[in-house]
Automatic annotation (TrEMBL):
Compartments in which it is found: Cell membrane
GO biological process: acylglycerol catabolic process; medium-chain fatty acid biosynthetic process; medium-chain fatty acid catabolic process; sperm capacitation; steroid hormone receptor signaling pathway
Name under which the protein is recorded: Monoacylglycerol lipase ABHD2
Enzyme kind, highest EC tier: hydrolase
PANTHER family: ABHYDROLASE DOMAIN-CONTAINING PROTEIN (PTHR10794), MONOACYLGLYCEROL LIPASE ABHD2 (PTHR10794:SF80)
Mode of membrane association: Single-pass type II membrane protein
Lineage start: Eukaryota, Metazoa, Chordata, Craniata, Vertebrata
GO CC aspect terms: sperm flagellum; sperm plasma membrane
Location of the active site: S212 (charge relay system), D347 (charge relay system), H378 (charge relay system)
Keyword terms of this UniProt record: Cell membrane, Glycoprotein, Hydrolase, Lipid degradation, Lipid metabolism, Membrane, Serine esterase, Signal-anchor, Transmembrane, Transmembrane helix
Function: Progesterone-dependent acylglycerol lipase that catalyzes hydrolysis of endocannabinoid arachidonoylglycerol (AG) from cell membrane. Acts as a progesterone receptor: progesterone-binding activates the acylglycerol lipase activity, mediating degradation of 1-arachidonoylglycerol (1AG) and 2-arachidonoylglycerol (2AG) to glycerol and arachidonic acid (AA). Also displays an ester hydrolase activity against acetyl ester, butanoate ester and hexadecanoate ester.
């Protein structure tokens, strides 16, 4: 009996010590994973800016402090581009408002019906002028999305009228009236909305805003034709990828889980297409419909859907041609109005190699400012102290702040200067 007790007393102290060691190792491992996944050791910093030193750019950076001050995301999760992207995509915005607007329907030449929502300003603009923001949302998005509603409400309160394009086929309760839906770079619907605003409000000036895919569309629209830039004060593009042809290879990589995001977006596109199957495929033969739908069901990437379905809406002979023709990279150098391009370094959808496009452009053209934040994810840019984000994001504040600065410049600019002129051309005019 005594021997048994002795054995127990000699063994038992070692077991708790071993378990304590295992617990500590497990806790240390979990903490390491959390720190790495949440990127907690990453610093906060102001956006990295690329621009030419012109009077206008100096004025804009001085008058829009968000571009030069430190962007501070929520402490516990805001430095993870994945969580910023997921919160934007799934949770939308905190306390999302419900701005009241009027839906407009515009018949197109090919039988399609474009729709956009019009929101009147909730007060006078600080300059006393009539200013309209023409807004193009991200892929498959529309005016009822949380991030759009939050931004519109904020812009309305600052005296802006807002017109928000609903991508063709994106609204679940609006039927297509032709066998075509929105594509990566088709500008027809956005052009129709802008044309309506110019006719309905002949005194208004325009601020052009594009989010993600919408950024590609608005920059392509402005660069397609010089007349598209008339009455446009400036343009802001947030989180776009600039070149679908260059992006397609990166979208098949597992780095930053892009392949997984590709799958999720492809699944969402499938749902949109299938919800309009009768409008899109009704005029085709049964055999062709079966073949198209079969390829659609088995598609696991956006590229497969683009190749089998989307490129055919505009008669492109190949995926390469479709991506070449619909990417703004071939048009954006023609944009001469002030242009703010915003991207995030931890955006899991936009590969770093694509950012050479806006960086090179802003170094060459005096009207372009490229702002790259360390954090923000894809259309996230949440701000907040520790855990809970604020309703308004850094992105919302930057767009309105930049627009306010641009409007102020136009109001008080010297006679020889405007958003379209560099310092050298001002000197030439004086001479």
């Amino acid at each position: 009996m005594n021997n048994h007790e002795t054995d127990v007393h000699t063994i038992s102290p070692e077991l708790p010590a071993m378990f304590d060691g295992m617990k500590l190792a497990a806790v240390a491992t979990v903490l390491y994973i959390i720190v790495r996944c949440l990127n907690l050791k990453s610093p906060t910093a102001p956006p990295d800016l690329t621009y030419q030193d012109t009077p206008l750019n100096r004025f804009l950076l001085k008058s829009c402090p968000q571009l030069t001050k430190e962007y501070i995301p929520p402490l516990l999760w805001g430095k993870s581009g994945h969580l910023q992207t997921a919160l934007y995509g799934k949770l939308g915005r905190v306390s999302s408002p419900h701005p009241s607007g009027i839906r407009k329907y515009l018949p197109m030449q090919d039988g399609a019906t474009a729709t956009f929502d019009l929101f009147e300003p909730l007060g006078d603009h600080r300059t006393g002028d009539d200013i309209t923001m023409v807004i193009c949302p991200g892929i498959g998005n529309h005016s009822e999305k949380h991030y759009i509603r939050t931004f519109v409400d904020y812009a309305q309160k600052d005296g802006y009228r807002c017109a928000v394009l609903n991508h063709l086929g994106a609204l679940p309760n609006i039927e297509l009236t032709s066998p075509r839906m929105f594509t990566y770079g088709c500008t027809w619907e956005f052009a129709a909305m802008v044309g309506y605003i110019k006719r309905a409000y002949p005194q208004t000036q325009l601020i052009v805003v594009g989010f993600s895919l919408g950024g590609n569309i608005v920059c392509k629209f402005l660069g397609e034709n010089r007349t598209n830039q008339e009455r446009v004060l400036c343009c802001v593009s947030v989180c776009q990828g600039y070149s679908a042809l260059r992006a397609q290879e990166t979208f098949l990589q597992w780095d930053q889980f892009r392949r997984f995001y590709n799958f999720l977006m492809a699944d969402n596109m499938k749902k949109i297409i299938l919800s309009h199957r009768h409008s899109l495929f009704g005029g085709s033969s049964v055999k062709m419909i079966d073949a198209d739908l079969s390829r659609l069901y088995t598609a696991t990437s956006l590229m497969q859907i683009d190749d089998n379905i989307m490129r055919k809406f505009h008669g492109h002979s190949s995926l390469k041609e479709y991506y070449e023709k619909e990417s703004c990279v071939h048009y954006i150098h023609n944009v001469n109005v002030p242009l703010l391009l915003v991207n995030s370094a931890d955006d899991p959808l936009v590969h770093d190699s694509l950012l050479t496009i806006p960086r090179t452009l802003s170094a060459k053209k005096p009207n372009v400012i490229f702002a790259l934040t360390l954090h923000g994810g894809h259309l996230g840019f949440f701000e907040g102290a520790v855990l809970f984000p604020q309703p308004l994001t850094w992105m919302d504040k930057v767009i309105v702040g930049y627009a306010n600065a641009m409007c102020q410049w136009e109001k008080q600019k010297p006679p020889c200067q405007s958003g379209h002129l560099s310092e050298s051309s001002c000197t030439e005019e004086k001479a």
